[in-house]
Amino acid sequence: MVKEAFQKANFKTEMIVDLLAILWIYAAMSKLWDFTKYRKEIYLQVIPSFVKVLVIYGLPTVELIVATGLLIKQFYRPSLYASSALLTAFSIYILLALSGLLGRAPCSCGGILENMTWTTHLFFNLTFIALSAIAIVNLRERRSGVIT
Questions:
Q1: pTM for the complete prediction?
Q2: Contact status, residue 148 vs residue 81, Cβ threshold 8 Å
């Protein structure tokens, strides 16, 4: 019975980790495939210019690093935390956009994500944050030997 619970938790965790890896690969690649558009959208952001350059090159790089970490079991935990942090930061940006505090808030997401409304995108992010939390809890329980 305990072995079966561990197997189910492992399967759930691996499915979540795989979904997150796909999300980050997709997010990074959509930026890189249409890099000119992505760069223009970042330059429209209401952030200092030196930060814009860091975001233009750093964000797809970080997304790919997180995705890679999610594909290597030894890095699941830190990659899940990094993924949650990115999703939380993006969710805060969306909340600021929805509140109108940013004035203009272009979406630098690519592909199907750019077609979402801000509210839909927020719920999308919150869903993936919740999935990340489930995976983190499953890893913690696996480590401690307790599966509920």
A1: 0.85
A2: no
> Could you state, in order of their start, the residue ranges of all structural domains in the chain?
2-144
User: CA–CA separation, 57 vs 75, rounded Å?
Assistant: 23
pLDDT in tens, the chain (148 residues): 545 555 666 788 999 999 999 999 999 999 999 999 999 999 988 888 899 999 999 999 999 999 999 999 999 999 999 999 999 999 998 998 889 887 776 776 767 777 888 899 999 999 999 999 999 999 887 665 544 4
Distances (CA, A) of 52 to 49, 125, 145: 5, 22, 45
HSE at residue 53, side-chain half, CA atoms within 13 A, is: 2
The structure tokens 């409304």 sit at 117
